[in-house]
Amino acid sequence: MKGFSLLKSLATISLGAVLMVGCSSGNSAAPAANGGSTPAQTPAAEGAGGEVTAQIGVVGFLSGSGAAYGEAQKAGLELALGELNEANKGKLKMELKFEDSGGEKEGAINAVNKLINQDNVVAIIGPTLSGEMFAAGPVANEAEVPIFGISNTSEGINDIGEYVFRNSLPESIAIPTAMKAAVEKKGIKKVALIYASNDDFSVNGYKVMKATAEKMGLEITGEATFSNGDVDFSAQLTKLKQTNPDALLVSALYKEGSMVVKKARELGITATILGGNGFNNPKVFEIAGPAADGLIVATPFSPEKQDDKVQAFVKAFEAKYNKKPDQFAAQAYDSLYIMSQSLLGAGKAEREELRNQLAQLKDFTGVSGKLSFDEKRNPIGDAVVVVAKDGKFVPFE
Amino acid sequence: MFWQQLVNGLTVGSTYSLIALGYTLIFGVLGIINMAHGQIFIFGSLVGLVLMTSMQMPLGVALVASIVISAILGLILEYTALRPLRKKNVPHLASLISTIGFAILVEEAMHKIFGADSRAFPQSFGDKTFDLGVIQIRSVDLIILAIALILMFVLHFWIQKTKMGKAIRATAENTDTANILGINTNMVIIVTVMLASALGGVAGILIGMAYSALIPTMGMTLGFKGLAVLILGGVGSIPGAMVCGVLLGVIEVFTVAYGDSSYRDAVAFGLIIVILLLKPEGLFGRKA
Fold first, then answer.
1. What keywords would UniProt list here (chain B) (predicted)?
2. Which positions 204-243 of B are in contact with A (Cβ < 8 Å)?
């Protein structure tokens, strides 16, 4: 067994490398500022007529089991890129270079290394998963390149270093907000927890859930784990059902999470289900179907929010992609606006200058709410609690 | 809870059995492990699933499509990765590697064609739950168990009683002798590879029904479970694959139910090691 899997992974890696080369040569649309034409130490060249050209790298979960996150982020970034390059004509031209991490730590590290050393980007947006950021963030920090997480919600992301930023609301704010709302309105007293034990993001979400439950004096009736990539959850859920909780707290990425929700309902679990940030994706409804109804999640962004800025974004997004944006698209969209604001403030595409500008960010109003950083560059913001109903998330009341 | 978990284990286990049967058939006849089996049947069942979701075809059509596509992929595997090597009389390890290559090609093709995401299985039926007091059983679980059992018995009967089955057994015994005795062994091999892949096609659709979704990467994870069953049951043994598939499913489920869910694979595979230490030829294998 071991021999086979080893052989296979070796073969996969080599083939993957071949494919990657194929992809990146096909995608490299940036004409002038590539490779040899750029001096090695300047991250981006200043174009003619005072227009600053900035190359920004993006590391996303674009293929693999969580590709819907990466796709949403790419869509949000590309929408923002079009708008910003139009608005800042003559002052700032941004170019995005996308790299696929495949949701793997190794993939994220490789992508970050390539963007820093080969593409000389001024900053990096991403990677998608908290686990990837814990692996790749130190690389960027060491190279003194600002790296900006748009979906990393674990504790301790900003402790990686001075060059690490994020606009994604930590789970430690979002989950307690959702749990408080659910406990107040539904009278929950006993909870059971289930989470993916081999994923940094899911484990962190579980820890927050457990700590919050203990703080609120809720009884924990049972805990169960599974692994990312699992497809069968019936044993764990049958076990938890036996403990008869009022609420089931699920910390997982959307793929496994939706299947857990679906299976739970099939097994006749009627408890309120409350999920972490991973559920903020329309795919949940595709996979779980009607079983998703009643799922409670906290999110910094809701497309239903009655706000001019949000509605304009939703409209533009729908016009371009023919679907509603999710939180991942919204935070990606905001991140490029933050980048452009900071780059304009810096006046040049230079890593150190950009970092200082980012650190000073205050009261930025984006589609995913108001954003400031605390002294540790952690985002301060509010979460909205939403509940799944008929295939979409509506405000929880 | 015991009975409910037993039902869970039986459902999971019967899908393992069907997967393991595909490995066993090919191993029996060709003496090689087909590492592309998992990818082949997930490809086939994904085609079936797409027909169901985007063209509103009924489940029957999807099942047939899955069987046909899997069988065709099996045929392609035979002509590209197995036969050329067999002609040159290279060691068996070479065909193991060539099937791994085929597996990677099929998996990458799936990513290109179907995307990397899990695809939900439509829930037109099978959501109905029967409450039998101590257990709740979904009609989909009943369907899976029934199809798996029927298929296994038909296969067993076919191998034991029909002429073609006899030819397969003769080829498995000794290819050269069978050839001399007038059996078209090339034909037998083609039939076996296609049959094994077609069985996988059925298993894929059943798995989609059981887990409510299909994921391109499932081929590898479930393929490994099938391999474990193959070894546990004794390589080349059809009853071994059937019984041990169910056994592995039940062991896994009970590990989670009465132990810790993180030890699911550890206990299941640990037990396999123990069994192999005590009975190296597998539970149903013949002594070499």
1. Amino-acid transport, Cell inner membrane, Cell membrane, Membrane, Transmembrane, Transmembrane helix, Transport
2. 207, 210-213, 215, 217-218, 220-222, 224, 227-228, 231
